[in-house]
Amino acid sequence: IDYSPHNPAGPLCHNATLHVAAVIPNLLVLEHQFDESPMFKDLCPGAVPKIENGLSPLPMGPGIGFSL
């Protein structure tokens, strides 16, 4: 059974969900909402991972990958 988590809760929760999704063998997609609020990008600068060809690298900073 494929698994598709959905996270509209902002950059902190998105990066945590991204790390969990990386270890799920039956992951289908990770749904996200980046452009609903300008605060998403302003709250944690550098926290929004770049998406290319439908893929997003895991943030490599400490913890879940970025600073508050």
Structural class: mainly alpha
Task: Note poorly predicted spans.
Answer: none
Count the E strands: 2
Strand order of the largest sheet: 1-2
Give a structural overview:
- The protein is mainly α.
- It has two helices and two strands; from the N terminus they run βαβα.
- Helix content is 24%, strand content 6%.
- The chain has a two-stranded parallel ribbon with strand order 1-2.
- β1, α1 and β2 form a beta-alpha-beta unit.
Write out key terms for the chains shown.
68 residues; mainly alpha; two-stranded parallel sheet; 2 helices; 24% helix; 6% strand; globular
Could you give a quick summary of the protein structure above?
This protein has a domain at 6-43. The protein has two helices and two strands; from the N terminus they run βαβα.
Layout of secondary structure:
Layout: E1 6-7, H1 11-21, E2 31-32, H2 39-43
Parallel strand pairs: 1-2
